């Protein structure tokens, strides 16, 4: 008998019919003799509808009250799910984040989990009941107030519960069959990945893969919680995310492939500070100004200084939403920073090729550059980690580039993948 | 500076616009220098919509989960109301029933308040904030579970908070101008009552007047909480419900009128057990059978035994929803009870004439019978209390009877009342 944590997202519980289907799946896991704990998101578009209501009531809703409002969403889905399961003859009890012991910081809207004390969840399991826990929400001990973990927090709830309860596996149910070598909507020959390491999954998630939240993967890695990303529709095995040092709970350990997957995103903008005096400390000065805006800097490239002018160009990418703030901050400090000009460019895409096997293989970068060159695609920035090579291209070339790389690295499947309407969120 | 508790029902917070209007009214009370605590119901039809969802998911929802589900309703309205008030520049904090210390029994769906410990509400007031409390909901200490007080429980929440906080007045905002001498939709010349005693209000509420819940009035009387029932639309003074021994907080004490108001309802059915042997203990035997069904018996009439047969008829009324259960129980015991026949009649109406002055006046019943006789209306059952006379008539005659009595007892106003679409719920 195993202890299994299952997470169902909003699209899996969008209406009464979906809730009954999910209840059936949970009941089957219980019938098979397992202890089951479920983390569930708000139904379908509930969160967006509540946000819209808040917007109609006041332009800038108080964060504490916004959390109070949004947590009504999972309260509805978890109660319906619990009563549906009970209707199928299994014991079930629903718990709010607070009742399930999800203790967080007091940062409304983006609280961090500081402790998980699932006493009532354990008691429910001991009584033979299935525990249904509200995803996304927590409780701050100092203020006594309800908090939320931010968008996608339900994945984190599931992983945190799995860690605290020492679960055998944490199953993340979604509307796709698992993690793919790349987005099947862009590359029809994308393949489902059977096994992927935490490290690779982190790089993919950080580079734009949407199926799992970065934060949940980080939490899972830190606590050694094996994840199984799978479809709530098909019942087929999905993708297991695991720690290679710990090994897999089931099946054999396999050689890591050189390239596991390709992620991409077009939500970043490139800012270039041109004509910067090439003196020590200048870059630090620039990034201190950027840091004050709280913008999330991703890639940074500094061009070699032109020997005759002793001036250099520094480029970096930030999420588009932060772009304007960064440009304004840099313009305000123009005199102190003594740069020549500032360029803002949001017509870029970032493509990341990820694979644990890259560590032991040479020539990956060369192969990547050649593939893009042959496809006629210009590379504007490059950044690498131990198991990732990222490049920035024009946004118009993104899809072509992803397809070229998918083929060049031998990731193409023999047949096209079934593509669902959803995005795995 | 006074401490004022205000209660707003679902129709007062049905959409974003209504919420903003209510927020404005609350803010004005605060601006006038008062401490304000608000009890709020779920928005408009939210509760019914949630019940419908539950019904789609499973035929008989688990009561614990149903309470978890329904309490999402006030969570939404209270958070929106608090953020709307904050948007107007006043401090506001929303609290769930549990956070506000509404400690109840564990009876899901119809929990009773056993203690009110509004520590966080008091702290909010001390900080100068307006406290917005979820109506209708509570918390059981033994199980740690969320409970609901049953339909209309928000009135009780408001009254219980007012009692625990020793508030100066508890204002019940609704969609009518106050308590009327009778329903203005039936008698256009109905008058708003300025002042009414708890005792009279209890009799009216128990006899079908819908503007205030019986339970809330009982709680208010027991704890000496003066109520002010008023419109959330007009801002005009409404009806003050008070304890005559304590006197009014404002204005002069007045002589109680002989007749204060007329209530009526058509939601009861009459059951007649005919041909019952007129021997001691027979009635007790019958009502023991009825009691086992948990039906709520209202009026009971036993006809004088026919001397020649030594048989008697016993009639009583129960809510229609209980009718079938009672009939089945009586049929099952037919042999033991040895009655002749059983009649079920749901085409009846109950009309109650209420007035504290009745105690010191004679001839009220005679006046009532004459008025109905002159209107050509037959009386089927009669029951009286110290300050009430109730009669049962055919349901078809109900409105005619109410109008005749309203005129006969001098309650008609000089002009017609404004009638709103709502019912005060």
Automatic annotation (TrEMBL), chains A, B:
GO terms for cellular component: cytosol. One of its GO terms (biological process) is homoserine biosynthetic process. Pathway: Amino-acid biosynthesis; L-threonine biosynthesis; L-threonine from L-aspartate: step 1/5; Amino-acid biosynthesis; L-lysine biosynthesis via DAP pathway; (S)-tetrahydrodipicolinate from L-aspartate: step 1/4; Amino-acid biosynthesis; L-methionine biosynthesis via de novo pathway; L-homoserine from L-aspartate: step 1/3. Keywords: Amino-acid biosynthesis, ATP-binding, Diaminopimelate biosynthesis, Kinase, Lysine biosynthesis, Nucleotide-binding, Transferase. PROSITE patterns: ACT (PS51671), ASPARTOKINASE (PS00324). Catalyzes the phosphorylation of the beta-carboxyl group of aspartic acid with ATP to yield 4-phospho-L-aspartate, which is involved in the branched biosynthetic pathway leading to the biosynthesis of amino acids lysine, threonine, isoleucine and methionine. This is Aspartokinase. It comes from Leucobacter soli.
């Amino acid at each position: 008998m195993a202890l299994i944590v299952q997470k169902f997202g909003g699209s899996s519980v969008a209406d009464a019919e979906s809730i009954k289907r999910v209840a059936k799946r949970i009941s089957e896991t219980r019938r098979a003799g397992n202890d089951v704990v479920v983390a569930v998101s708000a139904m379908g578009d509930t969160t967006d509808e509540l946000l819209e209501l808040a917007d109609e009531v006041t332009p800038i809703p108080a964060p504490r009250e916004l959390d109070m409002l949004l947590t009504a969403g999972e309260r509805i889905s978890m109660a319906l799910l619990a009563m549906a399961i009970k209707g199928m003859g299994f014991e079930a009890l629903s718990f709010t984040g607070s009742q399930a012991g999800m203790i967080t910081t007091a940062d409304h809207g983006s609280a961090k989990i500081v402790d998980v004390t699932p006493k009532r969840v354990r008691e429910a399991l001991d009584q033979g009941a299935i525990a249904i826990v509200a995803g996304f929400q927590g409780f701050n001990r100092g203020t006594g107030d309800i908090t939320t973990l931010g968008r996608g927090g339900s994945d984190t709830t599931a992983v945190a519960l799995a860690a605290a309860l020492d679960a055998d596996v944490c199953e993340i149910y979604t509307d796709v069959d698992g993690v793919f070598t790349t987005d099947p909507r862009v590359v029809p020959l994308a393949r489902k990945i059977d096994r992927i390491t935490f490290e690779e999954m982190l790089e993919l998630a950080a580079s734009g893969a949407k199926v799992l939240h970065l934060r949940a993967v980080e939490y899972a890695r830190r606590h050694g919680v094996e994840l199984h990303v799978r479809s709530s529709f098909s019942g087929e095995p999905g993708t297991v995310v695991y720690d290679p040092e710990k090994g897999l709970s089931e099946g054999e350990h396999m050689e890591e492939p050189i390239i596991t997957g390709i992620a991409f995103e077009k939500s970043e903008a490139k800012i270039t500070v041109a004509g910067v005096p090439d003196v020590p400390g200048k870059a630090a000065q620039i990034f201190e100004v950027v840091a004050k805006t709280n913008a999330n800097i991703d890639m940074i490239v500094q061009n070699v200084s032109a020997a005759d002018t002793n001036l250099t160009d520094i480029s970096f990418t930030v999420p588009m939403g932060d772009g304007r703030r960064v440009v304004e901050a840099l313009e305000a400090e123009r005199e102190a920073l003594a740069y020549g000009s500032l360029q803002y460019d949001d017509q870029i895409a970032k493509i990341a090729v990820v694979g644990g096997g890259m560590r032991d293989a040479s020539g990956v970068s060369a192969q990547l550059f050649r593939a893009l060159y042959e496809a006629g695609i210009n590379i504007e920035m490059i950044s690498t980690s131990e198991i990732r090579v990222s490049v920035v291209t024009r946004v118009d070339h993104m899809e072509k580039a992803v397809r070229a790389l998918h083929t060049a690295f031998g990731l193409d499947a023999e047949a096209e993948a079934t593509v669902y309407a959803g995005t795995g969120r």
